[in-house]
Specification:
The complex is a heterodimer of chains A (about 325) and B (about 290). Chain A contains 13 helices and eight strands. Chain A is α/β, with parallel strands linked by helices. Chain B has one domain: Aldehyde Dehydrogenase, Chain A, domain 1.
Chain lengths: ~325, ~290
Amino acid sequence: MTSALTDPTEAPSSGDALPSWTTDVTRNESSLRRFLAGLPGVDPVGIEQRAAALATRSIKKASKLAAIDLAIAMVDLTTLEGADTPGKIRGLARKGIDPDPGTEGVPHVAAVCVYPDLVEAAVEQVRGTGVKVASVATAFPSGRSSLAVKLADTALAVRAGADEVDMVIDRGAFLAGRVGLVFEQIQAVKQACGSARLKVILETGELATYDNVRRASWLALLAGGDFIKTSTGKISPAATLPVTHVMLQAVRDWREATGQLRAVKPAGGIRTTKDALRYLVAVREVAGPQWLDPHLFRFGASSVLNDLVMQRRTQLEGHYSGPDYVTVD
Amino acid sequence: MTHLGVPKTYKLFIGGAFPRSESGRTFAVRRADGTLAANAALASRKDGRDAVVAARKGFGSWSRATPYNRGQVLYRMAEMLQGRRSEFVALLTQGSDAGSDAAGAEVDAAVDRLVHYAGWTDKITAVFGSANPVSGPFFSYSAPEPTGVVVVLAPTGSALLGLVSAVAPVLASGNACVLLTDQDPCVAVTFAETVATSDLPGGVLNVLTGVLAEVAPHLAAHADVNALDLTGADPTLRASLAADAADTVKRVYVPAGTPDFTAPPGTARLRAFVEIKTVWHPVGALALSGGTSY
């Protein structure tokens, strides 16, 4: 399992040149629409059955401990509340740096995820620890604003030092068939991100069908999104296993088509260690072992970290732990 | 046409639902003459874990409910038990050689016991709390609060009365309970059915039937369990469970001698599962001149 935790800087970046067919596809809105409509349909019954079957797999002992550590290292520890304060962000960042103080060998989380105006507080706290700072942007969570406002929002986050930007797509435009508009907006935000990695939130709970999820995934990948992310966490249903399957298939196929490695981030609704391990099984089986890496797979979550820490203790101490023994966020 | 009877499966009671054991195991319950009475679920370690999770969830609303409301629910449990009197008499006589008169008396005593504790709920604070005299300008008062999740090993011998006498005081003060029994599972699960129709929030009482020595050690070591009632364990098991519980500083209740559940219950079990919280509060306004505080 340690081989999966390779140095992120060695992983291929998404900046490599794309094959020429992608330029043809993205030439104009009608070619883009033709390409997306030509993607094979998703068999909903099949994908749900496959997801449910993989979810029954049981992981025990040393493998479970390794999987828990990997899952902790993949967490984007998130707080996106109107009541967030710099103090709360600092506390969250400290927790991300050392999720279980007093226990040896617990990895730090991948990133803390906050609103743009609170990026500064997070950056100060995590400096030099390896924990990244992600910021939502582009009129999160609805995405209902002008492109100028979305770009200004992105610039605010990047200027404050965010390593990663989580943008939302315009679901209204996507559902109305204006895929060219969505494509251009993702491209523009990607440009505004500079060196920051871009996560494109599809908000799958609003896309209605698996076919739409597949199309939106490809659209985001074509437009240069480094991550495709399921949800904002503000809409129910948020991340589900079948939807994540579709998105993992998209990055796997993208790899085959272009040679580039892109990442996936399910967010929202992942609360227990059991949930997290099911996602890891899906990552291994659908995308491949290479994706078992915090650079290429993340969990957008907050409460799951406490459960992972409790389960980790249960594995080491031999008895069940309880919520009285972890920090209250 | 002859009617084909439908034998009942005795399942666990976790979080207000009646699931089978996660392990899929069952065991045979035999009548006094050795014939098969029923199959019951054999709880596993993971059923114990699930029950504690359910109890922790149930504890929130139950501990915050007003004592008056808790009394009403306990009284409702007495009503439901009364309504199922004949069923319990049948169960009690099948499991032992007790006559139906003795069994009927046990059910009546169990109903009375529930009513007894229903009356206690709104008196616990008044009786066990106090306003403390202190030498300073402060109010100081102490009030009992529920301990949390209490694991009760059901008493042996008195199948229904013992069970009710152990569970009711735990619930009366606002705790959530995981009841573990290795004797008469039919009585315990049927009692769970009366509880399920008594407006007790799901998860406040959970019933596991199985082998004490298998499940109890995991619950005794579980960090999210706050207290243990070891009445149903033999002396050797008591000692090892108390040792397991020490790692997480649980409250452990062991009755003195062999409890006689037909006698008036006293308050030991009520007092065993409450925590006394003492609050200090300044009295009046502090004078800037440093003189009197009034």
